[in-house]
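Researcher: Let's do a round of design. I'm pasting the structure tokens now; please hold your answer until I've finished.
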């Protein structure tokens, strides 16, 4: 472990059990009491606090069994809208230190640190900068390494509110005990490895690369490099996340009918297009997000085939996303995001538009003549024997039939 960061490092911010931590953040009075989080169907226990574990409550239990073991157990249900809000805050915290940020999943965010060596020369500098945008009660964990898989593993092993830095020379040894299930392999490949008795990255990395790629293809080779601390996958930020405009509507009372939702979105679209960032610019991505009073989340995202700047066309697209959608309940908060803003002011047309139009006109004329005379009056030249010594044998005339 080193306190000085190396160039071309990758940082990974992890919040284990983000949904559970979000609920505990919103209910500080539950601190130190037995608490459990259910699944979305509210049938089984997913996460528990240490106080609940002491009383025998475990993940996977039914609610009835958990209440029998611990009558004072507080059972919480997940709120996707709340989790999405905190997940967005984690992305913003990483964007504050690097422009190259990728969200792997809610609660796991990567950042490429290239070019930030002067701002954060040491691990403590980076840790303070990242954690400044994350509530301490979320128990954030930070990992830094030369490859993304190693950084992710380091973040999972880091202590709460701490950072762990793994040098490239120590990466293979550090990853030796990691489960192969964490590698970028599909479930079938992981099961095949387990049947062969290969459960850890160390055993997997000891295999010949050619044999691994022969069995698992290109993904197997990528996973083999990752197990050795040489993960070649870069941090892939979404290009349209940098330039965006977001508008919100807080509804009181909640929006019940589809017409009121459409009216609210139409108003937000007008405000968003009048924003200085969006004025005289074109949109590549539209994202709608709505939350109910009970924390249910409704989302729609549309990547545009070509950038649009016309309000009428954007509104037609938004209305199509709403008119036939099923809502989880009345909306208390609605958000509209216009992303991927670009200066593009026109559409690239084909260089051969006139030629294509003339060909279509010719085909239409030939079809009319064929109907009138019973056969096509035109023929086309095709190569038959281009190597023949006699010119008349090299090509032939065939009926032109569009």
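Researcher: That's everything. Go ahead.
Model: Designed sequence:
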């Amino acid at each position: 472990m080193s306190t000085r960061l190396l160039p071309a490092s990758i940082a990974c911010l992890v919040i284990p059990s983000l949904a559970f931590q979000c609920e505990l953040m919103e209910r500080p009075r539950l601190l130190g009491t037995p608490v459990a989080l259910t699944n979305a169907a509210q049938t089984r226990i997913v996460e528990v606090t240490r106080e609940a574990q002491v009383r025998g409550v475990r993940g996977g239990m039914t609610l009835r069994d958990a209440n029998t073991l611990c009558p004072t157990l507080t059972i919480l249900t997940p709120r996707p809208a709340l989790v999405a809000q905190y997940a967005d805050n984690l992305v913003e915290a990483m964007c504050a230190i690097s422009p190259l940020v990728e969200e792997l999943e809610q609660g796991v965010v990567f950042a490429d640190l290239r070019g930030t060596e002067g701002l954060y020369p040491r691990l403590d500098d980076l840790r303070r900068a990242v954690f400044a945008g994350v509530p301490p009660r979320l128990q954030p964990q930070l990992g830094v390494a030369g490859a993304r898989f190693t950084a992710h593993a380091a973040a999972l092993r880091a202590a709460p509110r701490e950072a762990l830095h793994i040098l490239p020379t120590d990466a293979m040894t550090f990853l030796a005990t990691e489960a192969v299930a964490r590698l970028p392999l599909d479930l079938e490949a992981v099961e095949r490895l387990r049947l062969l008795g290969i459960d850890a990255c160390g055993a997997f990395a000891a295999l010949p690369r050619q044999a691994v790629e022969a069995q698992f293809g290109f993904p197997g080779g990528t996973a083999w490099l990752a197990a050795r601390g040489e993960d070649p996958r870069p941090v892939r930020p979404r290009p349209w996340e940098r330039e965006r405009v977001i508008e919100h509507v807080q509804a009181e009372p909640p929006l019940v009918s589809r017409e009121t939702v459409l009216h609210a979105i139409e108003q937000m679209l007008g405000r968003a297009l009048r924003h200085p960032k969006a004025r005289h610019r074109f949109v590549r991505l539209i994202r709608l997000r709505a939350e109910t009073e009970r924390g249910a989340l409704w989302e729609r995202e549309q990547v545009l085939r070509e950038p649009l700047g016309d309000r009428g066309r954007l509104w037609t697209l938004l209305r199509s996303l709403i008119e036939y959608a099923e809502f989880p309940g009345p909306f208390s908060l609605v958000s509209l995001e216009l992303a991927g803003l670009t200066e593009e002011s026109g559409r690239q047309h084909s260089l051969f538009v006139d030629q294509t139009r003339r060909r279509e006109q010719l085909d239409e004329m030939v079809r009319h003549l064929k109907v009138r005379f019973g056969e096509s009056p035109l023929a086309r030249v095709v190569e038959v024997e281009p190597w023949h010594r006699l010119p008349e044998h090299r090509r032939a005339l065939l009926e032109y039939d569009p």
